[in-house]
User: What shape does this take?
Amino acid sequence: VFFGIVIVLSAIIETLICLGGPEWLYIALMWMPAVAANIASCIAFREHREPFSLKKLFASVGFHRCALRYVLLGCFLPLVYLLVPYMVYWGLYPENFAYHGVSLVLVLKDVLPIMVIGTFISMLSALGEEIGWRGFMVPALYEKLGLNKTLLISSLFWCCWHLPLLIGGGYMSGTPLWYQLPAFVLCIFPVGVMVGLLTLESGSVWPAAFLHAAHNNYDQAVFGLITRGDNRMYFVSETGVLTILCAWVLAAVLYIRVKKRL
Assistant: This one.
């Protein structure tokens, strides 16, 4: 039920976006997984003849308390796999760094407030996806299929969900499509593994939501804005080779760590 609803609703909105629809459709699209998760949960309550309550509904989509360290880890991981590639790129092409020659103090003064405040603003859209993907989908798959198949299916589905936007030219432009599609999947798949592992270990949707929000904010509203260069999408962001390598290394380390605890 969840997969059917999210595919149909997302297909409608992604088609409108690719046809040149307004910007607010992106936010609506990111909330479709949450809509599908809540509908599927309500249907499950009815099938099991369980009385409906908002508390149970929130719990079914991942709203549980968790240790603060998981939320902080969710904000820290994208800082590593995004910032390290950008720093390497700035070192290779210093003229493409907007703050080239500027003192680190001034850079931090300008950038840090956006990194913090922007992450909370980005949460307004990222939470919609994570309620569906990690709050509902990942725990449901894990209960039926175990760890490895859950990480594989959830990460691949999340990657494929984005592909129509790339094909339609409305997302992550800057490279030819033959490169863009496989590079995007290779980059986002390990991110899906990381958020899935954080969700299963913490028992909550919040770490995944913060990681997703931080990822979008760091890349699109901070590092991407202070980086120029026609070739940058081959090195950084969600199609860059350097980002792909960093994301896979972090995902492998986190997988080894979490698998021992689950």
Q: What stands out?
A: The first helix runs from residue 2 to 18. The chain is about 75% helix and 0% strand.
